[in-house]
Fold this sequence. Notes:
By secondary structure, this protein is mostly beta strands. It contains 2 helices and 54 strands. The strands form 20 sheets. The protein has a 4-stranded antiparallel beta sheet with strand order 27-54-53-52, with no helix packed on it. A 4-stranded antiparallel beta sheet has the order 28-29-30-31, with no helix packed on it. A 4-stranded antiparallel beta sheet has the order 32-33-34-35, with no helix packed on it. A hairpin with a 6-residue loop joins β30 and β31 (about 465). The longest helix is centred in the first third of the chain and has 10 residues, at about 5-15.
Amino acid sequence: MRRILARGTLASALALTVGPAACSITAPSDEDLMGGGGAGGTVDASAPEVASEGSVDAATDKVGDQTPPIDVACGVTEKVCNSGCVSKNDPLFGCTDTGCTPCSTQHVSATCLSGKCQLGACETGWGDCDKNAANGCEANLQSDPLRCGTCTTACSYPNATPLCQAGTCAIGACTLPWGNCDGNDANGCETQVNDIQHCGSCTQGCISSHATATCSNGVCELGPCDSGWGNCDNDGSNGCEANLQTDAQHCGTCATPCAPAHATGQCAAGQCQLGACDTGFRNCNNQAADGCETDITSDPANCGNCKNNCPTVAHATASCVASSCQQTCDPGWAHCLAWGNACETDILNDNSNCGACDKNCNNAPNGSGTCVNGTCTLACNKGWGDCDNNVSNGCETILSSNTNCGGCGRTCQTGSCQNGACPPEVLAQNQSNVQGIAVDATNVYFGTLSAAMAVPKTGGGVFTIEPIPGGASISNVVVDATNTYWTSYNLGRLFKDSLTGAGGATDLVTGENGVSGLVLDTDWIYFAVALSPNGSVQKVKTDGTGQQSIANNQMQPRGIAVDGTYVYWVNFGAGTVMRADKSSPTPTPTTLITGQGNPRGLVADATSLYWTNNGQGTVMKANSDGTAVVTLAGNENQAYGIAIDATHVYWTTDRNPGEVMKVSKSGGTEVTLAANQARPRGIAVDATHVYWLTNQSGQVLRTPK
C-alpha cells in the first residue's frame, strides 16, 4: 500500500525518533518515505540535514527533477511529475523513467515503447517527414509545395510559383516576363509575354494598324506611322487610325481640320478642298481658305449671287433681303411717284406728301397748311382758329366771341371780346416803376421803386410786404411756400421775408454790383450780378449761407434758369446762352449758343430752353444742350419778359404800346393776349391766367390764357 506523507508530517516523524541523548538517527523505512515499494535502511551520514518544518528545498519541487522530493513516495512503475506520481509509460509525461517532457502529439497520437516515445498514425493531411518524434507530424501535406500529398513529393513548374492545394500540385503566378499561354500547367509558364503577340499578358496583342508596333516591358508601344496615316487620337491601341490623305478632320496632319466656313470640306491627297457651299452662301472671292464667305441673302454687293450689286439711289440705302435687292429710304424721304425706284419725295417738308405719300396739307380754309417735320401745321388767317384740331377742315372758328377770344377756348371773364382780345383785368394800379413778378395760389407779388408788394389774384387791396429805401428799385421776385425773395438792382442786395412780411426782411446777399436775374431751386437761390466789367452768376442757400460763384467775367448776365443738372443764363452784353453744372464745387461755364441780340429773359423745362432777344425782337427755343435752335416768334419789338407752361410760351414786348403774346412750344400762329400796353415787362402764368406788369403805367394785370 502506497503512502504519501505531507512535509509537516515527515518532520514530526523524524523528531519522534531522536532522543535527548541519542547520537544517531534511525531513518524511517523506504516505504515510510516513498509511499511503499522500497527496501528499508538507515539514512546515509552524507544526507543533508533535515530542515525545520515547512522548509524543504524548493529545488526538490521542480517538475521533471530526477530526484523525487523526500516527502513524496511513488511506486516502482511511477515517477514524480508536477508534485505527483505518474506512470513512467504515460506519453503525456514522456516515456523515460525520470523526465516529465511529454511525447509530441502534434497532428499525431503517441505511445510509449521500451522507454521511448512511439508515434502512431498521423492525422489526415499531415506527415512525419523528418522522422523526429519530438515534433510529431510536422509537415502539412495539403498545402506545402515541398511535401505535397507525400513527404517526397515537391511541386515544381518552370517560370512559375508552385502551389499545393488539397495535397495536389498546382501552378501559381507566372514569373515575369513569362505566361502560361497554352493553358498546360505541366510545362509551367512557357511563353515570354514581351512580344507583339503576347505583350504583358497571353491575350494582349499589339495592334499595328498602319504602323510598326513594338512591345516594351510588357507594354504595347506604337512605332512610326505608315506614310499618309496618323495617330490623331493619341491612342496607341488602335494604331495610326487617321487617313491623312482623305480624312476631312485630319487633312495632311492631325491638327489640320478641313472645315471651311459655310461649306462642306473635302480632303484629297492630304490637301483641303472646298466642297458644296451652305444654302445662302457663295465663294465670291474664289479663295478656298475662307470658305464660302459671302452671305448672298443679305449682302447688297452680292445679292442672290456673286457680284449682283444692288444699285444705290438718292436719299436711300440699298439692302439685300432674302437674296432680293431693296431700297430703304432715308428718314424723311419716300418713293411717292408711280415710276422709278428713287426716294424722291421729302416728306418732312412737302405739303402734298407730309409725313407720308399723298398726305396733303394744302387747301386749308381760312388758313394755309404747312408741312413741318412731317406734320401738317395750320397757319390760320388773322381772326380764325383751328379749334377742333382738324387740319382737314382748316381754321373753322372765328376768334371774336367771348368763348374763343383771340384764341381757341379763351373765355373773357370781364367785358367782351374786342378785336380778338379780352380786356385785361386790372389787379393793381398807380404803382411806381413796377418790376419783377411772381404768383402763388393766392397772390401776385411784385416790386416797386420803394417796396416789395402783393395783391390778391382775385383783386382787392394791395399790401406791402417790406418797404425798401427810396430809389432801391426791385428788379426780380420769386416765392416758395412760406417766403418771398427779391433783389434790388441798385442796392446790390438779395432779401428774404415771409409771404405777408411778418418778422421783417433778412439780407441774404449784400455788396453786389447790380443784382438782376433770380431763380429758386429748392434750398438754393441762383442770381445774376449784371454790371460790367465783372458780371457773375452765383448761388446762395435760402438761409443765406454757402454763397458760391458759379461763373465770373460774364458780360451783363440777365435771365437765369435751372433744371435737374444745370444752371443756365444769358449774357445780355455778349449775346450768348451759357450753362454750368449747378452741383459742381468748381463749375466750368460752357457757351451753348452765340449770336443772340441782347438776350434778356430765360426759362427752362425738362428738355428745352426758351429766351427773348431784346435787340433782335425774337422769341427763341433750343434743346438743353444748345442744339436745334429755332425761332418761335419774330418781329417782336423789344421782346422782354418770358414765361412758360406745359404747352405754350408767353412774353411781353417792352414798347409803348407793347403787347402780351403767346405761341405753342412747337411753334405756329402767334396769339395776342393783350395789346396797347404801356411798356409791359415782368410776366408770370398759373393754370388759368397770364399776369404782367406795365412799367410805365404802374399796373398789375391779368387775362385768361
